[in-house]
Amino acid sequence: MEPLNSPTDRHQARKRFGQNFLQDGAVIDRIVRAISPTGNHRFIEIGPGQGALTFPIIEQLAEHATLDLLELDRDLAAQLANQFSQDSRVKLHQIDALNFDFIKHRQQDDQALRVFGNLPYNISTPLIFHLLEQCSQLDHRQVISDMHFMLQREVVDRMAAQPGSKTYGRLSVMTQYYCAVEPLFEVPPEAFNPKPKVMSMIVRLQPFESLPISANNPKLFHQVVKAAFSQRRKTLRNGLKNLITADQLEQLGINHTARAETLPLTTFVEIANFLTTTSNP
Ligand code: SAH
After folding, report:
1. For residue 279, is pLDDT > 80?
2. From the CB of 21, is ligand 1 less than 6 Å away?
3. pTM given for the model
């Protein structure tokens, strides 16, 4: 049997929900300080679990702030709903965060969202893509103003990677297109119960208010990046063969034998913009 998180807790950590509960008070303090949850903001926590971050955040929550909790595990969600039923600022959603409509939530109010969580590692990459794609859908208004996440260190390395590095890929390009990426600090396995097998890291993502480099058609840009990195080690021309010819790449001044993992964000945007003009004359 897995060790329990605390003597009063009867919840057994569920692997399929990626449950690794934070138990190190110093690490929790450091995360809360990084988030700095003061101010009348609208917060969303993904995967509150047993409330390791939720309780200390609520302690600092301003009077007119709100905190929406997205928890998939029914048992934990029921526990949390009970614990926070008296606090009108806090609302629990028993939901898969992958299905949560951040845009709709954002539209209920005129304030961009502040999202945080010790993410379930089994779904962290699709969750990040879900959030990034939502960042692109409200024209001229920010959906999310910042995100603080605990992730596997390797995932944070990929987010922050530069072209030419071994970890540079679709996640790096997509994250850096929408956000300033700031890896904050490492968290060792001992900070959790049960202990994950890997090192973890806190990252701060700040979506740009206006994108420094922007594609005319974000959907097409997503498609180009996905295709370019669909098979590592392929040349750009092969990866993009359903979208653009070698000649067209050369016209753009892009070497078609280059590999996607050596090319900067601007190149993918140039390709997407070229396709926007050719397919929608
Ligand atoms: N924040 C807590 C728990 C982290 S573990 C802590 O730091 O101790 C990850 C949490 O995410 C678990 O509570 C798990 O049940 C929840 N979770 C897993 N998949 C989820 C999903 N798809 N949507 C929302 N929550 C999810």
Report:
1. no
2. yes
3. 0.93
